[in-house]
Design brief:
Radius of gyration of chain A: 21 Å
Helix content of chain A: 40-55%
Largest interface: A-B, 30 and 30 residues
CATH superfamily of chain A: Winged helix-like DNA-binding domain superfamily/Winged helix DNA-binding domain
Shape of chain A: elongated
Number of strands of chain A: 4
Largest sheet of chain A: 2 strands, antiparallel
Strand order of the largest sheet of chain A: 1-2
CATH class of chain A: Mainly Alpha
Number of domains of chain A: 1
Oligomer: homodimer
CATH architecture of chain A: Orthogonal Bundle
Order of helices and strands of chain A: EEHHHEEH
Strand content of chain A: 15-25%
CATH topology of chain A: Arc Repressor Mutant, subunit A
Number of helices of chain A: 4
């Protein structure tokens, strides 16, 4: 059977699309962006800045600087260190750190929807 | 006369603000972003890629590559060359080039409003 009007015709990819990047600025500049939020999630996963940095192919020094920047700009620190114990201590995400992750992904998701909607409005 | 409730109290700067960057992607990647649109405006102003590049402290080679990328991705070229005449010819913006500039600034302005609105919604 043949239909003259294909109902499930795949949507053509539009020629132009709006793309973008967002981040949250704090008192000293960048507070959190895509890379920093991934770093926080890796710290939560690995319980250590060293292991988190390694998993992202990032130097410990750079990771530490990013964490320090977030801690300084947050009302309360985003990670905390526990010392001693069997594993010699580690680094944990604080509730403030969890809140930062959630706030960034909420903004990020909304932004993806915005980009899609605006792509359709491009006068090109 | 003294009012207990200051009507013109300046708004406090919020601790966190959403910031971002947008660009328009085409078939080959970036089609136009902030830097490219400024370059197009300078070409319109100076009537030459060489002079436009110079005014932005950009190499001619780099400016030419950006213009070439836009020309290849646009349905019709964004600039055209006129040869001969008293000044030895030059480069002019086409109507397609004007449309690209307008479309980018329209998206850019809308985006600034979006960032302001979303900054107020940050749960931080």
């Amino acid at each position: 059977m043949h239909y003259g009007f294909p109902m499930n015709k795949p949507t053509a990819t539009p020629r132009y699309q709006l793309r973008g990047r967002i981040w949250i600025e704090g008192p000293e500049g960048t507070f959190v962006g895509y890379g920093r939020v991934i770093l926080l999630e890796r710290i939560r996963e690995h319980g250590s800045i060293t292991a988190a940095a390694k998993s992202m192919d990032m130097s410990y020094r750079h990771a530490w600087k990013l964490v320090d920047s977030m801690n300084r700009q947050s009302r309360t620190p985003v990670v905390s260190k526990s010392t001693g114990g069997r594993g010699g201590g580690g680094t944990q995400l604080t509730p403030a750190g969890e809140q930062v992750i959630a706030a960034f992904w909420a903004a990020y998701e909304d932004f993806q929807g915005y980009l899609d909607a605006q792509s359709n409005k491009l006068d090109l």
